[in-house]
Automatic annotation (TrEMBL):
InterPro entries: Aminotrans_3, Aminotrans_3_PPA_site, PyrdxlP-dep_Trfase, PyrdxlP-dep_Trfase_major, PyrdxlP-dep_Trfase_small. It comes from Stappia albiluteola. Keywords: Amino-acid biosynthesis, Aminotransferase, Arginine biosynthesis, Pyridoxal phosphate, Transferase. This is Aspartate aminotransferase family protein. Belongs to the class-III pyridoxal-phosphate-dependent aminotransferase family. SUPFAM superfamilies: PLP-dependent transferases (SSF53383). It comes from the Bacteria. One of its GO terms (molecular function) is transaminase activity.
């Protein structure tokens, strides 16, 4: 099928893209036989690469046995084994796993477990989930309520309870004399101020992406930020939710981004790389001390029909085994620093690259008209579309946005599968260089 008839499908825009034919490793082919390097792993999803033979074989075997058995009628072994494997990869105590089918559902589940824990333990007055501006936590109404990006949330405000927001650290835009350490503490203390303003007895949780994803384009906070946030949550008895939907499953060079700072959150949301595109799957992982009171009080009043089905869980388990077997966290760290260095070199040649940022293979750069002031290019130039199209024509796919949570600008995420080799990095950088030129 190559003819492009009018489509019954619709997505965000009228933009049409090539029809996919097949995918293998870091490459995707369209129906005309053109090959593309998947330079952003889709939307930071295909962490172990496409069509991994071991994962496909595991899925094939599971498909021949049972693809679906409703979780309230039957338990299944892949779900049990994936839960145990997931728990083994989490910080101490974060060992109760609830499966879902995507990132928004994982965030939604974390918020709902937090609230049911509060109710079960006599803390009914706690319901506010403080989040950051900008941030992205998903598209369902609960996840959207904690998302800090006005264009996405504005139409729905009458339909949901607006949640308090604090500014996310965007130290690269600050023109002050603070050290990175001081800036980290300054931004973290915004949480303290907000809790006091709202009344600590009304605040349930704080949710953050450890490294900004779609919201800020791979923005990492100063190191001091992370520990101080944990301290503030503890001081006021507020639960800390890490949204690791994009950063999890090895993307930043550790299985969880939280490991970089030794942070133990109370709840963690996972999806994307967790099943790496092999199945719609995500997980909400919680500290046991939150789960037990909820189960004692009558159970977790929440769930999704497809959640925890044997096929998706078999795929997820095979993906996690692959990450471990091939040391993909280590490769993400090594290839990530190599790629970051290569992108930084491009800044010498192209003065309109404002900065390069990120951790592991969660990397991004931003195009600007002035690097000193980080002034964005005029919107009318449509640089984000132009560069993506140039890259497409050269067989490279990168993820771009014109704005990141209200900050105007052209942002590009370079986040290939964690299996990339140095040869793949050469190909990415060569194609990107030609496209930028
Ligand atoms: N949280 C974060 C940090 C994300 O990046 C995303 C997806 N971009 C989501 C949640 C929502 O995930 P999904 O699109 O799978 O519902």
């Amino acid at each position: 099928m190559t003819a492009r008839e009018p489509s019954h499908l619709f997505y965000q825009s009228r933009l049409r893209r090539p029809l996919v034919d097949r995918a293998e490793g870091v490459y995707i082919w369209d129906v005309d036989g053109k090959r593309y390097l998947d330079g952003s792993s889709g939307a930071m999803v295909a962490n172990i690469g496409h069509s991994n033979a071991r994962v496909l074989e595991t899925m094939r075997r599971q498909m021949e046995k049972a693809t679906f058995a409703y979780r309230l009628h039957f338990e299944n072994e892949p779900a049990e084994r994936l839960a145990a494997k997931t728990a083994s990869l989490m910080p101490e105590g974060i060992d109760r796993v609830f499966f879902v089918s995507g990132g928004s559902e994982a965030v939604e589940s974390a918020i709902k477990l937090a609230r049911q824990y509060a109710v079960a333990t006599g803390q009914d007055s706690r319901w506010k989930v403080i989040s950051r501006m900008p941030s992205y936590h998903g598209s369902t109404l609960g996840a959207l309520a904690v998302t800090g990006y006005d264009p996405l949330t504005a139409p729905f405000l009458p339909m949901m309870r607006e949640m308090p927001k604090i500014a996310a650290p965007r130290a690269y835009l600050d023109r002050d004399n603070l050290s990175p350490h001081e800036r980290g503490l300054k931004y973290a203390d915004l949480l303290r101020d907000k809790i006091l303003e709202e009344g600590a007895e009304t605040v349930l949780a704080f949710i953050m992406e450890p490294v900004g994803g779609a919201s800020t384009g791979a923005l990492v906070a100063p190191d001091s930020y992370y520990g101080r946030i944990r301290e503030i949550c503890d001081e006021f008895g507020i639960l800390l939710i890490y949204d690791e939907v994009m950063t999890g499953a090895g993307r930043t060079g550790r299985f969880l981004a939280a490991e970089h700072w030794g942070i133990t959150p109370d709840l963690i949301a996972l999806s994307k790389g967790f099943a790496a595109g092999y199945a719609p799957l995500g997980a909400m992982v919680a500290h046991n001390r939150l789960v037990e009171p909820v189960l004692d009080a009558g159970g977790f009043q929440h769930g999704y029909t497809y959640a925890g089905n044997p096929l998706a869980c078999a795929a997820g388990l095979a993906v996690l085994e692959e990450i471990e077997r091939e040391d993909l966290c280590g490769n993400a760290e090594r290839m990530g620093s190599a790629l970051k260095e290569r992108l930084e070199l491009l800044m010498k040649r192209f003065p309109f690259i404002g900065d390069v940022r990120g951790k592991g293979l969660l990397l991004a750069f931003e195009l600007v008209s002035d690097r000193e002031t980080m002034t964005p290019l005029p919107a009318a130039q449509n640089a984000y579309l132009k560069l993506v199209d140039e890259a497409y024509s050269r067989g490279l796919i990168i993820y771009s946005r014109r704005t990141r949570g209200g900050r105007e600008g052209d942002h590009f995420m370079v986040c290939p599968p964690l299996i990339v080799t140095r040869e793949h990095l050469d190909e990415i950088v060569d194609k990107l260089t030609d496209s930028l030129a």
